[in-house]
Amino acid sequence: MATIPPQAKSKQLRACLLCSIIQHPMDFRKNGCPNCEELMQMKGSPDRISACTTTYFDGIISVIDAEASWVARWQRTSKYVRGMYAVRVKGRIPEDVEAELESRGIKYRPRDQSDQD
Q1: Which residues of 14-35 are buried (b: 16+ CB within 10 A; e: fewer)?
Q2: Range of 86's domain?
Q3: pLDDT tens-digit profile of 97-106?
């Protein structure tokens, strides 16, 4: 699991537009997204990190035991790795990622809470 350096300011943190995990940009660059790297392909790509993450997010949830957490289920993160997740993320995934999700039969639901159940 990635750790956030104590000197990191919240403005430097970025949230993945697909899963909403929050990491330092260097963690995305070094390891990619721990939940959706197969689709987002951020590892080693600053341009892809800029396109697939954002600094515009609200709230932070720390998820330790995702499968047992009602908050993780509510946030749709119960199948993801432990870590810090944004409550709401502003922005949309790139069109190529959305097209890939659609081709796999997966409906994209933005994490800005505009598409709530």
Answers
A1: bbbbbbbbbbbbebbbeebbbb
A2: 14-104
A3: 889 889 988 8
Alpha helices in 1-117 (DSSP H): 25-31, 37-40, 46-52, 70-74, 95-103
Look at residue 116 and tell me if it is in a domain.
no
- State how far the Cα of 108 lies from the Cα of 96, in Å rounded to an integer: 12
Query: Could you tell me the pTM of the whole model?
Result: 0.82
Q: Which two tokens stand for residue 94?
A: 């790139």
* 109 found inside a domain: no
Helix (H, G, I), strand (E, B) or coil at 73: helix
Least Cα distance to 12 among 60, 55, 57, 61 occurs for 55
Q: Please check whether residue 7 lies inside any domain of the structure.
A: no
Q: pLDDT tens across 35-46, in order?
A: 999 988 999 999
The reply to whether 71 falls in a domain is: yes
- The CATH number for 34's domain is 3.30.40.210
What's the total number of domains in the chain?
1
